[in-house]
């Protein structure tokens, strides 16, 4: 017996209404650094799965604080220079390695224009193309900075992005929550300085996939893509059910129900995985890479 073709409801609607469905090849981005059992940074890049790896997190900065990097069990805070060779291994394979600042826990925020300037100087000299005698990740020069600001304070992040962009070549990325506009990154994202925006379509029931229905996610996606001037937009997802409180999309549902609704957009860039540890456990990226 011939197999029946199975269409997602969203894809069927697009076909019935005569809207062209164009598949666009995308990349996978992943957050690394928050679980000592996820493997090394080089392991992540050697997997061949990712185009971007966000080293997570610099979660103490601003307000006169001494900036601090927290990479969970990978290294002791202040002594992560051993990561330098892994960063260079990734870059030699064409993988972009980006420092993520913020996160859901930590002590960070900007109190003034001068504070934003000082943090930009620190990031440039300690992780990017500047120079410092105490670079936390060693001599390797990272490819950019990711804004994962989740504490609801949006003050001065637009200025931080501006000051960073004036330093020299780098990639600026951001990870807003899917409700638009994002409470922490709204003003920053209106600067037009961000190359990639990986929207977190999880832990936000109003704009995430649920029970076979991708409409809330796709509607939010279209709002983001039409309202923010950025190079590419990514669908941010938990790599396993345990990775987030809600919003998990199975690999099969991603390819059949979610991607058909977003890949036709010229600003589609791919998917973002939270995080490498759960991606290893669930083999999520390896299951969907051919469809992303």
UniProtKB/TrEMBL annotation:
It is an enzyme of class 3 (hydrolase). GO terms for biological process: chitin catabolic process; polysaccharide catabolic process. Its main location: secreted. GO terms for cellular component: extracellular region. GO terms for molecular function: endochitinase activity. Its EC number is 3.2.1.14. It catalyses: Random endo-hydrolysis of N-acetyl-beta-D-glucosaminide (1->4)-beta-linkages in chitin and chitodextrins. Residues 26-292 form the GH18 domain. The keyword Signal applies. PROSITE patterns: GH18_1, GH18_2. It is found in: Secreted. InterPro entries: Cts1-like, GH, Glyco_hydro18_cat, Glyco_hydro_18_chit_AS, Glycosyl_Hydrlase18_Chitinase. Residues 1-25 form the signal peptide. Keywords: Carbohydrate metabolism, Chitin degradation, Disulfide bond, Glycosidase, Hydrolase, Polysaccharide degradation, Secreted, Signal. Belongs to the glycosyl hydrolase 18 family. Chitinase class II subfamily. PANTHER family: ACIDIC ENDOCHITINASE (PTHR45708:SF22), ENDOCHITINASE (PTHR45708). This is chitinase.
